[in-house]
Specification:
The structure holds two protein chains of two kinds.
Chain A (H helix, E strand, L loop, with lengths): L5 E11 L1 H14 L3 E13 L2 E13 L4 E21 L2 E20 L8 H14 L1 H26 L10
Antiparallel strand pairs in A: 1-5, 2-3, 3-4, 4-5
Helix pairs in contact in A: 1-3
Chain B lengths: L2 E16 L1 H14 L6 E9 L2 E8 L2 E3 L4 E21 L2 E20 L9 H14 L1 H26 L5 E3 L2
Antiparallel strand pairs in B: 1-6, 2-3, 3-5, 4-5, 5-6, 5-7
Helix pairs in contact in B: 1-3, 2-3
Classes of the chains: A alpha+beta, B alpha+beta.
Chain lengths: 168, 170
């Protein structure tokens, strides 16, 4: 993604609830009326240490005719070995491995590419800098809130220490 | 590209009992109180035989005007973190035990939008402006930022500077 306004990495080495993570991310965006497209799902045999998973989602939501939210979620799990874990008295299948998750989000202005050319691009700069600047700031704040919420949910699923500290 | 100058840095190391959530809470409260914007960059946790190895990087930032902004790079490295139970006012509470390293790099970023770099001449005038005209202002902002981050350091130190937690068996 070009110039993301939100860019963060989450990494967990240990027991990972991949099935819950895989279900949670699309659900999170769908409930917030985002369009979500799974652009990649790879499951490789990997090495003797375990399997490899790679998932990539592209997420978008139109704000208006000029701007839209765009996000990307990338999950890569290496050396994943299936294990059975007892959680809340129930046995659950999980993976033991090394997960890398990248979350990115940006606001795309002029997504229809109508404001091109030397004059229009100057006009666009003026429009973004002086006319809709406050709205853009508010949109960025909203975007940050959404991504922080997702980041915390992912940390909760992965059971990372300090998972719920931003939106408390 | 924006120009960043280092104002200072803070490092604290601590080995003992703490609560990971409470540490993040201190950071969150400081960010909110001083009106910084959180920019979480990295959060990693590895679980091995020695416990949890946690690394957390965040970049709180704050715009002063259209030209200058405060940039703080905070890093936590927590090693061998294990769950322990401590006795607080006669009640058993779950805490963490391990080593923690807190590091904050404090910087002042000028021309963060990169609007004054369209030609070498403008870059030259920008550096001249930074050093000769806005030098005093810059050092004032730097001092304010340093004071604010010193407050975070003090809060962290105050949190770590305790010995009233006594470990009990789970």
């Amino acid at each position: 993604m070009e110039n993301p306004r939100f860019n963060t990495w989450i990494r967990k080495k240990g027991v990972i609830d991949f099935y819950e993570l895989y279900a949670m991310v699309p659900d999170f965006f769908q409930t917030r009326r985002f369009f979500i497209q799974e652009r990649q799902f790879k499951q490789k045999k990997g090495t003797a240490k375990g399997k490899e998973f790679e998932v990539f989602w592209f997420i978008a939501r139109k704000i208006d005719e000029y701007k839209k939210y765009e996000a990307e979620v990338y999950i890569y799990i290496d050396n994943a070995v299936e294990v059975e874990v007892e959680k809340d008295g129930k046995k659950k299948k999980m993976f033991k491995g090394d997960a890398h998750i990248r979350l990115q989000m940006a606001i795309r202005n002029d997504w229809q590419k109508k404001w091109t050319g030397p004059f229009k691009s100057r006009l666009k700069k003026f429009y973004e800098g002086y006319v809709i600047d406050e709205e853009l700031r508010a949109r960025v704040a909203e975007m940050y809130h959404i991504m922080f919420e997702l980041s915390e949910k992912i940390k909760q699923v992965l059971e990372i220490e300090g998972a719920t500290h931003w939106l408390k | 590209m924006a120009e960043q100058r280092k104002i200072g840095e803070h490092t604290i190391s601590y080995d003992g009992i703490f609560n990971v959530n409470e540490i993040f809470q201190i950071l969150k409260e400081w960010i909110k109180e001083y009106d910084y914007k959180p920019n979480e960059q990295f959060h990693s946790e590895k679980v091995d035989d020695n416990g949890k190895q946690i690394m957390y990087r965040i970049n709180p930032w704050k715009k002063i005007n259209e030209y200058v902004m405060y940039d703080v790079y905070v890093k936590f490295v927590l090693t061998d973190v294990k769950d322990v139970y401590v006795d607080i006012d006669g009640k058993k509470r779950k805490m963490n035990k391990g080593a923690i390293m807190f590091y904050a790099y404090v910087a002042l970023t000028s021309d963060y939008e990169g609007s004054r770099e369209s030609s070498p001449m403008i870059v030259f005038f920008r550096s001249l402006y930074d050093r000769l005209i806005a030098g005093n202002e810059m050092s004032k902002w730097g001092q304010t930022e340093l004071k604010e981050t010193l407050e975070l350091r003090k809060r962290m130190e105050a949190y770590f500077n305790f010995d009233h937690f006594k470990e009990v068996k789970a």
